[in-house]
Amino acid sequence: MKLLGLNRVELLVNDPDQAERDLSALLGGEGGLSFEREPAEGVLDCRVDWKAGIEIVHPESDEHVVGQLLKGKGEHIFTVVFEVENIDDARAWVLKQGFEIMYEFDNGTPEKPANLRQISVSPERTHGMLVTLLERGARP
Fold first, then answer.
1. % of the chain with per-residue pLDDT over 90
2. Domains of the chain, earliest start first
3. φ, ψ for residue 5 (rounded to 5)?
């Protein structure tokens, strides 16, 4: 597996508007932060500043699994996302090391090849941190 580096940190929050204001006030400085809404699977409000590597995540329903997590654990760093060169190599490495993959995502369709592939590793052996490995870009 070839690790390319940190992609972003995802924060699970109660109030995404307030989180956006607070983080912008703290880290905005010259050039500021610029959060964009990102499409998300399920009922999530996700806002990302790609330059800063911060994503704000808020469930739009308490019934959603992420809503239950927020209710039980409160606001916290939800996921740390690392970019890898090849998700297939990463998957093989993770399994060879004895970790469990709890979630996989690929945004491809029959009409359009994927340009985003990711796996999330079960947090039991990552000391409570949900680690996601991400491959971006279309394959040749």
1. 66
2. 3-136 (3.10.180.10)
3. 135, 180
